[in-house]
Specification:
By secondary structure, this protein is mainly β. It has one helix at 2-18; strands at residues 27-30, 42-51, 54-63, 86-94, 99-101, 104-120, 127-129, 135-141, 144-151, 157-163, 168-178, 181-184, 188-192, 197-200, 211-216, 220-225, 234-239, 244-250, 253-258, 266-271, 277-284, 287-294, 298-308. Residues 4-12 and 14-20 have low confidence and may be disordered.
Length: 310
């Protein structure tokens, strides 16, 4: 009887195995578990079953359906940065505010510089600053190279002292060379003039030295003659006795009348501050200098010609 049961189990196993091609067998028994392995898609398990009133241990292979293949999504393409071509332009600049040496106006210091810009070839086109390429920045004055400096990302400007031999208009050119690229300011006219001058005039000296005549009668008539009163409207007159009057100026004469204590031997003339005259004078071809003449207040003592009347 036991032999018959064993044959039935073997038969059932063979039947299950033979039908694997059509439909997979869910479970089958490994009769020699030490020497056999489960087929693909089966997992090995140990089970305890009761047979003929006996609990026995058997090793089986249990079918596990394969998971459907998961198709991984295609990796997202990373956009490749495409360099947009740009046009590089070089620029030069000459600072119009040159500096003249206070001790020598013919010695001038120029400030000059270089820069670069790039225009992206897109729509719309936009110009923006660009790193300054390595190059040479030159300054020419009146056609002669005066200064030359190296420029690049870390240096873009410089100063150039130039000493001229004469006042007037001089030409200045700034040129920037970098490989096959270049830029220039073209001829920049620079007018070099002397500093404005202030001339302090002095009353009672040189051509302005006055003369005075006093006519003494019951009163004294004082006449002061001067080549130029420089815009003064009147002058103060006082004699040696302390007698005084205010003499209005007409052209080159100033006349006033005052009581006299006696024939004076000298007069004191008090000049007011004269007008400040602004003018120009030539300092060379195409050159003018601003000149201001100042007449400060002054006191002049002078001998008087006395004429006794009556």
């Amino acid at each position: 009887m036991r032999r018959l049961a064993f044959l039935l189990v073997v038969f059932a196993s063979l039947v299950f195995a033979s039908g694997a091609g059509a439909s997979p067998v869910k479970v089958y028994v490994l009769h020699r578990p030490r020497h056999e392995k489960c087929r693909v898609h089966y997992v090995r398990e140990v089970r305890h079953v009761r047979r003929h009133h006996h609990r026995i241990r058997e090793v089986v292979c249990v079918y596990v359906a394969p998971k459907p293949a998961t198709i991984a999504p295609a990796p997202k393409a990373t956009p490749v940065a495409t360099a947009v071509p740009a046009t590089i332009r070089l620029h030069t600049h000459l600072d119009p505010g040159f500096v003249q040496d206070p001790g020598n106006p013919l010695r001038v210091t120029y400030s000059f510089s270089a820069s670069a810009s790039q225009t992206m070839l897109a729509t719309p086109r936009v110009a923006e600053a660009a790193p300054l390429p390595e190059g040479i920045l030159d300054l020419y004055s009146d056609g002669v190279l005066a200064c030359s400096i190296n420029v690049g990302p870390s240096a873009s400007e410089g100063e150039c002292p130039v000493t001229y031999s004469s006042y007037g208009t001089h030409t200045t050119v700034v040129e920037y060379l970098s490989g096959s690229n270049s830029a220039t300011t073209g001829n920049e006219p620079e007018l070099i003039e002397p500093f404005p001058a202030v001339i302090q005039r002095a009353w009672g000296s040189g051509e302005t030295f006055p003369s005075a005549t006093v006519r003494v009668g019951t009163t004294g008539e004082v006449e002061v003659t001067d080549a130029s009163f420089e815009g003064a409207g009147s002058i103060g007159v006082e004699d040696s006795f302390g007698d005084s009057c205010e003499a209005p100026v007409t052209s080159t004469r100033a006349v006033c009348t005052m009581p006299v204590s006696g024939p004076p031997n000298h007069l004191t003339i008090r000049y007011p501050g004269g007008t400040t005259v602004a003018a120009t004078r030539s300092c060379g071809p195409e050159c003018t200098q601003q000149v201001t003449e100042e007449w400060p207040p002054a006191v002049v003592h002078l001998e008087a010609q006395v004429i006794i009347v009556g």
